Structure of Glycosyltransferase involved in cell wall biosynthesis:
Amino acid sequence: MRVCFIAAPLIARSGVYNSAIELVTAAREIGLPWTAALGVSSTAGGASAEVDGVTEFVAEPAGVGGIMRLRGALRATEAYADADLVVSLVPQSDMVLALERRRWIAYVRGLPWPERNEASLAKRTVWRWLERLALRRAEERWVTTEILARGLGGGVDRVVAPGIRMPQQRAAEGQQLGSDIVWAARYSSDKNPQLFIRTVHATGVPGAMYGSGPLEEELRVAASGNPRVPGWIAKDELWDNARAYVGTSTREAFGRSAVEAALHGIPLVLSDQFGCADMLFTDVGLRERHVLPLDEPAAWEAVVRRLSEDTAYAEAVGLHVQENARALSIGAAVDRVARALDAVG
């Protein structure tokens, strides 16, 4: 079955963008005829990925009014036109497919409507109504984690856990951790970057915030030099000097950066809104110390200090999450998606 994964518009070449490319690449390596059509904003950082089976086109965020333009752009994409079944990875794609007469699945990767601090009441109400209507027209509705299933409030057919491509081993087995407490996400309010800045200021540890987004200049001013706010950085350089990864998001359906860090043996501190948190911290004691409520700044500061000062402890935590992260490989994700597609028929 020819399956096309679509996501548009994307404002950054990060989470969904990388996940779609890795999924299609891994599937094609074992002979599955999967493709992807990705619509990316012209302002997105990084270069377009030239990957077999992946078509990239320009698509700008334009709210509900841009749905019809996006529909035309997708129809002009060969991979989309030739597919037997389409899998949508973002809400705008869901809304386009709700207008099309073809088989499609909504694979929800994050809460598909704005939360209270992200948009006006009117916009949140309209967006939620349109997306719920679109989801009802999908043949099935998949989510990546149980936390996301709860956030949607029902109507989920399957939990299909994602995966990421395993990174190359660090330069030397057992290489020492670096010095930076790293934050890596979009510079936006739902990623809660202010909590990271407050934690770095309170502890005095060196920090680095990697990403891009509308709050970039505001965060540079707030950081006052530590943490550093260098902007977007190549993925293969992200963890070079990492001591720990700190994820402060108010909502994170999966948490790709956390899994990537864990695969490198880097210890984590995560908000309890990360869908991957329970997958990565299977030890109850470690989970209590490292998966934290957003309203307990003292707990964040305490664990960051310990990771910065106690190398043996930091390495032990890194080994724990690394072992658990290996179950979230992209190959395993392809197998999970393929089984779900077989069940759909």
Summary: DSSP finds 14 helices and 13 strands in the chain.
